[in-house]
Every structure is written in structure tokens, then in C-alpha cells.
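[agent] plan:
  1. take the single chain provided in the ticket
  2. run structure prediction with default settings
  3. attach C-alpha cells to the ticket
  4. add a short note for the reviewer (M.T.)
[agent] executing step 1
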Amino acid sequence: MHAIEAQKEMLLTERAKKYLQKQKRDWAWSTDRFTTSLYLKSCGLPSFEALLDFQSNYSGYHLTHASKVSDSFILKLFSKKDLLLLRAIDCEKIGEHYYFPCGEHQTAQFNLDFPH
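[agent] step 2 finished; step 3 output follows
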């Protein structure tokens, strides 16, 4: 399992912002902060600010490079359908940390780490 510890605020460089503008995004995997917060609460989980930011700003992006399509990475946290059906959240709590699956690569799944 790969874990990425979430920062309080995700800041992007101008280069990263330009890169994202060129990437495809599946909007079925993006929801606003308020709706996501309600969903987390309905599942008995805290609403981490960084998690809300990730879901609303980055979930649904297909990150790729034209010359390395096999290295594509898909950022996804919760789908609109997950929220609509109030599906259980696939998250693991180890000690004081919550781990949420946040993306897929052909070699591994990645998780966001939120210290509580």
C-alpha cells in the first residue's frame, strides 16, 4: 500500500496548474465540499479539510504523459453515485490515521493518509 500524507492545503505551482488544465477529468468522480462533508458524516467519518479539497479539486483527473501513457494515474476518491447511494466508504483506520484509497495506477493502488 502506498500512502500519501495529506497536507492541510494543497498548493500547486503554475506549471502543475497548466498540466492539470490539459488533462481529462471524469466529473462523475468530483463533488463539492459541502456534499462530501455530509457524506463523510453520514458514514461516521471526520471531514478532513484536505480530503474535501482533494475531492472537489482533483478527484476524477486522469494524469498522463503523452509519451508514457502506460504510466497514467487516475485520481479518484468518491463518485457522485457513491454519495447518492450512500455507499460505505472504503477507508482504513490504523492508530490515529485514516487511509482512503485515492487513485489507481496499473501497478498499485494509492491511499491518502489523514492523521486524526
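[agent] step 4 note for reviewer: Confidence is low (pLDDT under 50) at residues 1-5.
[agent] ticket updated
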